[in-house]
């Protein structure tokens, strides 16, 4: 399956992306199939749907490797995004800005890119005064491209605002490398799971698809496809409103029930992997046909 620029542009427009929007894109490359131009094509097509300079595209540029470094040096100019080929391509777009953070930095391009990324790393990225708060103020649309709600970092924003007891903020002492090469010792805030009794990363497994399904059942999610990838789009405000409405009466909304939620549209494809911090995990991709995942070894 081959995906071209026009296919991507059509798919993004079908989920309601309009000129002037602000979009947070969370994505995986391989679910699409073979994309001519790779991640750059997907990012450029989304920018055109946004009206190019009229809109704003934000992509996570997270760096988990810093967690296992004894003396991490945060270098926004060269630290590679660990969030996939599309996010890494967007980081290199002309005019792209990048926020400074211990782990959860963002790349952004377009009208409000500088404002979203010009934040204090001593404040948690999920704080209303930081990147997520600014995206919320801009009525940002979240686009999940080839991934499910399991990959939605906006759900962690909801956890932060709900003050869930199984996560906490911690201070990290790091070295920040400035564009001119000078080094500065800094404190940066991070948001991590509380230590568990089992030694696992989470005490109980999360299932963010539960909240996603509720949004879909309420008619708050638009869905399309690009190639083999399922594309979902929802307003960040709708997710946060749902969290803050439901969490006070049900503190289990983020956690997995006896059976994980099976979303009604599309199928899941999975792949085991190890992240840059050495954690074993399973990637869950949202696709039309699990047999059509792009095999990079054949390209």
Automatic annotation (TrEMBL):
Pfam families in the cross-refs: Antibiotic_NAT
InterPro entries reported for this sequence: Amioglycoside_AcTrfase, Antibiotic_NAT-like
One BP term from GO: response to antibiotic
Cross-referenced SUPFAM superfamilies: TTHA0583/YokD-like
The keyword Magnesium belongs to this UniProt entry's keyword annotation: no
Annotated keywords: Acyltransferase, Transferase
One term of GO molecular function: N-acetyltransferase activity
Family named by the database record: Belongs to the antibiotic N-acetyltransferase family.
Protein name (database record): Aminoglycoside N(3)-acetyltransferase
Organism: bioreactor metagenome
Lineage: unclassified sequences, metagenomes, ecological metagenomes
């Amino acid at each position: 399956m081959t995906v071209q620029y026009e296919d991507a542009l059509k798919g993004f427009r079908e989920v309601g992306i309009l000129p002037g929007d602000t979009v947070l894109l969370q994505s995986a490359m391989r679910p699409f199939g073979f994309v001519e131009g790779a991640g750059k094509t997907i990012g450029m097509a989304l920018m055109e749907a946004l009206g190019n300079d009229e809109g704003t595209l934000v992509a996570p540029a997270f760096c988990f490797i810093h967690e296992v470094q004894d003396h991490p040096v945060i270098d926004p100019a060269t630290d590679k995004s660990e969030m996939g080929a599309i996010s890494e391509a967007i980081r290199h777009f002309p005019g792209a800005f990048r926020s400074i953070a211990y782990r959860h930095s963002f790349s952004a391009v377009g009208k409000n890119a500088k404002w979203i990324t010009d934040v204090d790393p001593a404040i948690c990225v999920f704080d209303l005064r930081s990147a997520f708060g600014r995206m919320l103020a801009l009525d940002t649309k979240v686009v999940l491209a080839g991934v499910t709600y399991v990959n939605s970092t906006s759900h962690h924003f909801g956890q932060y605002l709900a003050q869930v007891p199984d996560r906490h903020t911690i201070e990290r002492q790091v070295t920040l490398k400035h564009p001119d090469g000078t080094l500065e010792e800094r404190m940066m805030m991070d948001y991590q799971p509380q230590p568990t009794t089992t030694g696992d990363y989470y005490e109980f497994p999360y299932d963010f698809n539960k909240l996603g399904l509720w949004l879909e059942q309420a008619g708050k999610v638009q869905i399309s496809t690009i190639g083999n990838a399922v594309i979902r789009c929802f307003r960040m405000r709708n997710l946060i409103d749902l969290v803050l409405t439901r969490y006070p009466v049900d503190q289990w909304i983020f956690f997995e029930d006896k059976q994980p939620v099976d979303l009604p549209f599309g199928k899941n494809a999975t792949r085991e992997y190890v992240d840059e911090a050495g954690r074993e995990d399973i990637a869950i991709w949202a696709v039309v046909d699990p047999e059509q995942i792009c095999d990079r070894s054949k390209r």
